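Lab meeting tomorrow. Please check the following:
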Amino acid sequence: MENKDWKIYTKTGDKGETSLIGGNRVPKYDDRIEAYGTLDELNAFLGVVYDSVEIEEVKRVLQAIIEHVFRIESLVAYDKSSGEEITLPQIYDKDVAFLENEIDKMNEVLPELNHFILPGGHLPSSYCHVARCVCRRAERRILLLGAKTDIDKLIVTYMNRLSDYLFVLSRYLCARNTCKETEWVTKNR
């Protein structure tokens, strides 16, 4: 049933503040907002990667990752200092192991890596590089927040492994589409 009274805008953020999970209001530039906002940006890019990939197995993995990142967003958005006890979906060691397993499976079919790889050559591969960069920024934002408040160390481990996954996925997609990786080879001038 459609609720005609419901609106997407609440006007509660018009003065530059927003509410965290738990109810505390903070400025929209708060470190916690920066962290989960960057995670939200990452998830949007993961959606672009998902939509650009035609390999069903990869899509299945990406769908799981998108859900994991959404869980992490909620964990980062929860301000325990509010005193409100809230049960949120967690991230687990098995989620990190899932990424490691996927990385290992792709690496088995990839050529050995002896140089840095420059982005480009295949659009889905390039999308992975963008997502990897946003993932690294999200990791830095989470670490900054963790320097001031308690953040589950497993979140940092997951984010670190996710950026590795996205790098290997970029190589894997390139290889599956017979594009040539551009190696960065320095030239003495």
